[in-house]
Structures are given as C-alpha cells and as structure tokens.
Amino acid sequence: MAQPFDICIRGTGIVGRTLALLLAREKRKVALVAAPGTAGHPASAGHQDVRAYALNAASRDLLQSLRSWPDAEHATAVQRMHVLGDRGGSVEFDAAAQHADALAWIVDVPALEARLAEAVRFQPQVEVVEAPVSASLTVVCEGRASATRAEFGAHFDVTPYAQHAIAVRLACQQPHQQVARQWFSPDDILAFLPMGGPQGNSAAVVWSVSPEQAVLLMELPAQDFAARLNEASGGALGALTVTSERAMWPLQLARADRWCGALPPEGRKARSWVLAGDAAHTVHPLAGQGLNLGLADVQALAHVLHARDYWRSVSDLRLLRRYERERKAAVWTMGLATDGLQQLFTRQDGPLPMLRNAGMKGFDMSGPLKDFVARQAMGMR
Which domain does 59 fall in, by range? Predict the structure, then answer.
C-alpha cells in the first residue's frame, strides 16, 4: 500500500517547490500538484519567460540551503542602487556601506525554476502528481489567480492600480556595473535590473505605466520601444536593444481575508488548508519584494510545523493561525510601504512633487534611518 501523504501542495511555481523541499527535509511525505492554477504571471505557455526577481539575502540563504541557487550568470549581485525622482530627488544605496556582499541578487526566473525542478526530481519524499490528493494539510501556492483559494472560501480583497507592468530584456551599450536603477515619475515607474553576471551589459526591465500607455508600448516595433526606454532612462546605459518578447500584466494590491481553515475530516483524520505566496497576497513590484514575501511565507510555515508539539498534527489550526498572524503583519507592513510610494508619485496635488523630492534628498542623508530601511529590504536582521 502506498504511503499516505502528510501534505499536499497545490502549485508548482517557485514558492510551491521551495516549500516541498523544505518539508521533505523534515521527512514529510509531500504531494506536489502540477496542475494549471499558477496564472497571474506575465509569461504564459508557448511564450518566452522574461521574468526576473530581486531576491534578498534571506531568500538567497534559503535557496542555497536547498541547493537550488542559480549560478553567477543567472543571479547577478547588485552592489549599488540609484533611485531618481521627477524633480531632482534621488536616493543611493551601497552594499559596501551595509558591510554586505550585495543589496540583492537579480535572478533569472527560468534558471531558478530549473534548479528547483531538478532538486524536486531527486527528492524521494516529494511526488509530483496531476491532481490533488488527500492529506492532513493542503497548502495553496497557485498564485494570485488561485481557483482553490475561492473553493476553500477565502475572499481575495483586490485593489487594482491604474498601472500595468511591462517586462522585457535588453542588451545595453554600456555595462551595468552591478547597479540597479529606478526612475519615479507621475506617469510611470521604470526599473533596470542588472543581469548576466558582474561584467554583464544586459538588463531586465519592469516598466509600470497606465493601461492605455501599456497597450501602445506593447504594439511598438522593438526598435521604437527601445528608443522610448532610452528616453525614459535618460540614456543611462547608452543605446538599448530589445532581446526578448515583451510581457504585460495588471498591477494590484491584494490580500486574502483568511489564510487558513478546516476541511471536512476523512474518517478520524482532521484536515486543514493554508495559503502562501501570491495566493495570499500581492504588492506593487516597485520595491522588488513580491517573491521575497512568498519565500518568507513558506520558511515561516515550515518552521511553525517543525517546532510544533509532538502530539499536534500538521493540520492543527492553532499552528496555522500562528503562521497567519506572523506573516500577515509582515505583508501588511510591506504592502503599506509600496502602496504609499506608488500613491506618492502618482499624485500631483499642490506642493506634493516638491515635498516628495525634498523628502528623497533628506532620506538619502538620514544615516541610521536609511541604513535600517536598506537592511530590512535586504532581509538582514
């Protein structure tokens, strides 16, 4: 007779696979459901995946512990970050000032997914299945468009932004020098993320613009689109060449009202469900913290399950609510910060433009406050 599963994970994205590996390390028998439901990503079947994530030190340590961190070519360390406002305001962060190896690492999503898939393939405690199976605990990691979340009765409170994100890859005339660059204006938020290793001259771009502008930009020929990017970035990296398809998706701030709950028992076996990653929350990508939050979710969930009293089941709602409280607080704080920045730069009321740029300059010279914010974003305690 086949060994029953302790945990069923719905969703085979980065968050789902990471959790499967963490739980397998604790000798849990895990079913990983490779089914549709990871919608909400800009890439779709049959199209090039142009996503890249900025991962902090905590996320890197976690993935390295699972032997799933990509090589240096696909995980470029960010040594400095330049943030520019619309009226001369600017903030600069430097890894050396924080006595750190990097502010973040820009990771190629396909490369990271390949490493995780390989690790799962060689983990005997994880079985990839085609449909959900019975287990004491079901973890929903299907992404923001999760169908299971609604099936389990959790409401997803969505606040759409009047912005769509466009992602693309570029070859740049000048090397990036491991500098991440970001420009804020009332009309858009543009980020150039360094890729291709320390000596690289390629960049992953995330450009947040109005939905109407996004449609127009997506329809431009590649050469004209590159020219618009060059103009928006002030020619910071010289001539630009588009090297990939473009992807577009709507931006939103969203949170599930409940992150866990009970399922009907099977015989004497209690069953529960819990949410993690984008199935539980999404934030604006301007701070690059979306996947960091998701990976922190699964690390916290794995820790709560590991530290439980020996007589408690993994389906115990007291444990799951402990995880929910801890992660809701962290996600709420990050959502508040990213939403505040997005709102601050899209409003043009009265003296706001002058005040926000003066605030950027003041923050850049704030010393301990700036260091604290930097270390929080870097995942350092």
Answer: 5-377
